[in-house]
Structures are given as structure tokens and as C-alpha cells.
């Protein structure tokens, strides 16, 4: 069987995400008939049905769901190869560090200050993103390193170093009765009739069931909390974006969150290794966190890049 072409994968991903040939054709900038023929040829070459077509629309088969996952990863890898190759040809380019907007603010500031004080350190461009976007930015080559959070973010396939461990807080409207408490439990914040917990998208883009509003940006969430329509539980350091209309209350039995610095295992950049070492030094010289123990291990891979 011939190798799959990136054009075929792009066509299939568009149809699989839109679940509509017409919308996918518009998205791709092509006519619908050649798109339909291309998907049909792909199915015949693979020997499986990827899509169920009927009058109600288009649905993915089990084989189609597998190809969608693999095709996204393959297209990300191709895009990453092109971006990293172009950037490798520019020795003066800055490193791109991705971080969720509003998260790990103090740690990020300390890291940038430490890098700025190091002679010869590569300049760093900070790419602020929404929840869960760091993994895609690393995989497709738009970012060199990222600050991410275990257990919430997708760390599969990345090299990581633990930087700090912290507890979580509930962000509440200032006028809500729970906002006057010194501490809360998860039971306290679950199923509050007048203040349902906001729902973030899962890694596959779907939302968990529940009465809370579906949110996908920090600004959207902040305003909904201020309006008294929702609450959320987040790492304590993420309260940097807190509005005056918000109150943060510790949630004592919420699981601890570990902030990590992550990078693609294929990276051989001395600048990336230097940045990771700087982050590890900040971790090892910081006072112990009351939320949990600090990690003191440096990966052998980082030492080898020294």
C-alpha cells in the first residue's frame, strides 16, 4: 500500500471535525465533489470504512476515530518539522515558552528574571494560551517549552521536570455566602444549586456533563464568576487573574497540582536545555511549598546537554 499523503490526511481531518462534507470543503477551499472522491479513494486504499454517511449527516466509524487521532498527530509532526527547521536556521530567534494565561505567574516572572540576568542566555518569547493548548503548541512546533500542570494537562510524550507543588482554591463571586468561609471542601463546592462549577473542554474537545456553563477562555470564565453564574477550582497560583469581584478560598481536600516544565523529547537545542536548567535551579533554591514536597531530581538528559 502506498504511503498516506498529508493532503489526504488534511482532507479527512476536515471532514471528521466538521462531520459535513460541504462545510469541510469550504474550510479547505475546494469543491465538495473532489473532496468526496478523495475520501472514497482513501477508504478503498485502507480497506476500511472511515465514515458512515446517511441522510442525517456524517459519523465517524471506529476506524475513522483511530485515523483522526493518528492523522492529527502526523500533521502536527509535519508542521513541527517545518517550523523547527526554519527556526534552526535563525540563530538569533527567541525561544518560545508557552504558558496558560494567568497560571504560574510568579514562577514565570522569576524564570524570566533569572534568564535575563544570565550572560548569553537566549531571548524568550512568552506565548500565552488558553487551558489545555500547551500540548498542541509543543507538538506542532509553535513552542519550544511550556509550563504545564499535572494532572490536568496532556503530558504524554514529553520530557518534563517538576517545578513546584501547590494546593487549589475556589474562585467565587465576592457576594456569595461561601466566599466568607476560611476554607472549603470539594463537597462544599459541588452541586451548589445557585453556583454550578464551570465546565472546561476535555482533551477531545467535548464537555463533561453537568449544569455549569461551558467555558473555553479565561476572560469568559472571569466574567461569569463576577456575574455570580459559576465558580471554579484552580491551582492557587492561577489566581493571578482574579478580579476585584472574586474571592479565592482554599479547598483543603482538592488534589495537589504539580507545575512542570515540558519539552519535546526530540529537542537537542542547547538553549532549551539551558532554560530547563534555569527553571530547575529556581525550584531547588525556593523554600519548600506548604502544599507538598519539592522535587530535587534533574533529568540525565538535561545534564548531558550541558
What does this structure look like?
- With 306 residues, the chain is of the alpha+beta class.
- It is 38% helix and 19% strand.
- It has 10 helices and 10 strands.
- Strands 4-3-5-10-6 form a 5-stranded mixed β-sheet.
- The protein is flat and about 60 Å long.
In short:
Belongs to the LysR transcriptional regulatory family. The chain is an alpha+beta fold and 306 residues long.
CA-based gyration radius: 23 Å
CATH topology of the largest domain: D-Maltodextrin-Binding Protein, domain 2
Biggest beta-sheet profile: 5 strands, mixed
The count of helical stretches stands at: 10
Order of helices and strands: HHHEEHEHEHEEEHHEEEHH
Beginning-to-end CA distance, first to last residue: 44 Å
Number of domains: 3
Classify the beta-strand content into a percent band: 15-25%
Question: Average pLDDT, to the nearest integer?
Answer: 85
CATH architecture of the largest domain: 3-Layer(aba) Sandwich
Number of strands: 10
Categorize the overall geometry: flat
CATH superfamily of the largest domain, please? Periplasmic binding protein-like II
The percentage helix is 25-40%
* CATH class category label of the largest domain: Alpha Beta
